[in-house]
Amino acid sequence: MKGPDGRAAWTATVGTKGQIVIPREAREMFDIQPGDTLILLGDPARGIAIPPKSTFRQWSETVFGKGEDS
After folding, report:
1. Which of 17, 43, 47, 50 has the greatest number of CB atoms lying within 10 Å of its CB?
2. Contact predicate 23/12, CB 8 Å
């Protein structure tokens, strides 16, 4: 379901192995390709979020700190 401001919502079913299938429209919107690594963030009160893969570096630096330049 796509809203007027570009936001969207989808449903996904959890399989017996705990896997979910990301709907095609969501994969296209966020350019998610087979083999991509995604970050899942969890908060007991707010739920699970999957931020865009373009923010992976930002999230890893927030969690682990910036690495030293070589």
Report:
1. 50
2. yes
